[in-house]
Amino acid sequence: KSFGPVTFDRVGVAYKEKHLTIALDASMALGPVGLDLMGLSVSSPLDEMDLKFHLDGLGINFTSPTLEIAGALLNLSDPTKDELNFVGFAMIKAAKFMLAALGQYKKTPQYTSMFLFGAFDGMIGGVPPVFVTGLSAGFGYNSRLRIPTIDEVSDFPFVSILLPGKDLRPGQVVEKMISGEKPWVTDKPGSKWAALGIKLELFKLVDANILAIVRFGDTPDFSLVGMAVVEFPAKTAKVGSQVGRPFASIRLGILALVRPAEGIVNLRAKMAPGSYILDPDCNLTGELAFMTWFGDNPHSGDFVLTVGGYSEAYLAEKPKHYPDISTRLGFTWNYSDALHIDGGAYFAMTPKQLMAGYSMNANFHKGRLAAWFSVSVDFEMEFHPLFFEAHAKAELGASYKVGYGKLSYTVSIDIRADIHLWGTPLGGEVSFSIYKFDYTVPFGTSLEEARTNNKLEYFHNPSNKKKSFSALLPDPGQVAKVTPLNGLLPEGEHQGKNHNPNTPKRISPDLLHLDIKFGIPLSTINVNGQNTDFSGSNISISQLGYDDIKINPQLSFERFGSPVLKEHLDIKEVRANLPNAVWGNAQDAGDLKEHLVGLQIKTVYNKNVSSGTYDPENSKDIEGMGNCFLPFSDDVLLDELTAPPAKPVKGSFAARLMAQGVKKKSPCHG
Fold first, then answer.
1. H or E segment and range at residue 451
2. For the whole model, what pTM was predicted?
């Protein structure tokens, strides 16, 4: 609320222990000078007049045509605690440069926290058509920096501080950094962050401010946050003797996140408010998202790319881990009070399907007359088996209101055309509607029959069946990954520069610890022909029509040509969450929880067990063995794993899985 030169941002009243307190945040403008009062309060007991004033912080700014100076200092120290807590902001802006800095220092008996961020805006140099027009950097110690969502990028202080035309009131900058429901910076012992940014001018048309952020702590991650402003023609272009308004202005928020601990890569871009083309009232919209999952993430290997979201039909089956995108790539134009035009497009691709579409609508209403027009096209294609649907619709109509009051009625006419295609085999429908008369002409195979026949024909072919299943598997060399967690010894000098990477590695046999993970879910695992007592449920590949599939890999460990006794191996199971969309019912949400995916195996020295080739009683033989070659190598062995379904399925089901195996020959020396 404003009263003349004074603006009240916030007012509060409190009563405690017979004391009345009135607090407020306010700003005052006196010509070129502005004043921010943060946390100004006055309190007094009710039984006597004893006024006490308190001010948390003060901000001041001076503005002239050629110079702007601003600064703020806020004291957030709790008087009831042994602590210091100060936050500050300072800025100097002239015609050709801007220099700004903000930071916080907090000291408690347990820890000291601080952050500092600085930015310079001004021509630094470059090579046409790329010029560096700004730099920024910052760090935090025992400090946690919140990464913005794609909708918050334009308000992120470390980015907006260099945006042209951004109103930076010192008090507001400081307050947004460390207070509110979602502060940008909070103190957190053990957390650190660093940021480095650059502002670029490209072709005199694009201003881009990109900030790279690395956060250290329990879960380190890497982020790119930025804004790009594109204007055409440039603001300096003239129309006649006047500087012309840009034909188009696009403000694009950019956000990229890489979180190794979670196995997620997330890239987002979204048009910010203020984007337009042709006319400022013709607003542009649009959002892009690319996500992929890797490592131990249960959705590892999956990805999605979308511009403008998904088709309406796909929303009901969209996996929950895919991003929610509802903003079409398009425009909304209120050309006048009578005419409104809008349009939007989308494109999305996943490992299983592709979809795209476009729509446009125009509505006119003035007085008694109304008219409308709409057109839309949607296309969706599934890869395995190959099947597509295309739907195109157009509508044109008009109405006119005749008469007055209760004697009035509306005369209207509406023409619609609808084409629906699908295949293979090819089929479709063509529909027409004029006024109240509808007519539909079907041709080719019906939709239900085409889907059924397509799948039956596709899966009846063994080569197609194998090809479809292989497309869902990891790369052949990654189906089984063997990682030595312990016992691996340094490579010897005899290996030299020409060392063959496929040569077996050297290990210490009594310290061997292997981690064996499969990129596919397992039903059971046998080691040297013996059951490990670990099991997982049977799996399904619903999109291929298979249920109750069993996958039972056989692992063998040999030493001197004889199997290593089970008593000499400490075997533990490895479990992980797997996506239902691949290994279960694709319509079920969530994951297959804690499914068997591998083993961890250690060698065990047991004096109570002996064998012909491995005699534990002879300690000299064990200790004198020296270093053995690791009983596996980077070679990949081709094993055929057959997975017969528990229920009969027409046709055979067999997949040759590439797995890193255990070499039968394990030469030792010593």
1. helix 447-460
2. 0.66
